[in-house]
Specification:
CATH topology of the largest domain: Rossmann fold
Shape: globular
Strand content: 25-35%
Oligomer: single chain
Number of helices: 6
Distance between the termini: 17 Å
CATH architecture of the largest domain: 3-Layer(aba) Sandwich
Structural class: alpha/beta
Low-confidence stretches: none
CATH superfamily of the largest domain: Formyl transferase, N-terminal domain
Order of helices and strands: EHEHEHEHEHEEHEE
Strand order of the largest sheet: 3-2-1-4-5-6-7
Length: 203
């Protein structure tokens, strides 16, 4: 059973997707949730599944490196094998990336490399006028939103879409994509060769 640590900052719907899947047939278990906001709804989601949490609120611990050091200790304490960034809004420090090199994945609400490196990817897609956008799960590296791409799903932009409506449809696909990525990781079906990430078919 793959031991997963999830980093969140907000509502935690991607976390919820993982928790729900792990209570069914996902061969992975969320063993700790780390959050940099003490009022984040994601913490209630973790509590509902009796998952330990590590809260490093920005107000209490203003230094990013200090916050992430606390998170690292929590992950190591739970023997985490895969780190999932699920709406986590901080760039990871070099020490974090070194400790979990090649074992951190992130979701992003666009078809990377389009609209990467931004918290406004959905709005940018609308402003640019693209007809298709989507979501990506990728490996995390020191370059923001530039790690090897593992999985992507397309979402059509509809006439009359606004940020809220388009983001809701992208998020629904993100939930499915993230669970698919964690399942593939747990089953040993992830391959990365240079910039190219591949997910082998399930046996």
């Amino acid at each position: 059973m793959l031991r997963v640590g999830v980093l969140v900052s907000g509502n935690g719907t991607n976390l919820q997707a993982l928790l729900d899947a792990s209570s069914r047939d996902l061969p992975a278990r969320v063993v700790v949730v780390a959050c940099n906001r003490s009022d984040a709804p994601a913490l209630k989601r973790a509590a509902a599944f009796n998952v330990p949490t590590c809260v490093v609120d920005r107000g209490a611990i203003p230094g990013r490196s200090q916050r992430q050091q606390h998170i690292l200790q929590a992950l190591q304490g739970e023997q985490v094998e895969l780190v999932v960034l699920a709406g986590y809004d901080e760039i990871l420090q070099p020490a974090f990336l070194t400790m979990y090199d090649g074992r951190i994945i992130n979701t992003h609400p666009s078809l990377l490399p389009a609209f990467g490196g931004s918290m406004r990817a959905v709005q940018q897609a609308l402003e640019y006028g693209v007809k298709v956008t989507g979501c990506t799960v990728h490996l995390v590296t020191s370059d923001v939103d530039a790690g090897p791409i593992l999985l992507q799903r397309c979402v059509e932009v509809q006439d009359g879409d606004n940020v809220a409506t388009l983001h809701a449809r992208i998020l629904a696909q993100e939930h499915l994509l993230l669970v698919e990525a964690v399942r593939a990781w747990a089953e040993g079906r992830i391959r990365v060769e240079g910039r190219r990430g591949r997910v082998l078919a399930s046996r």
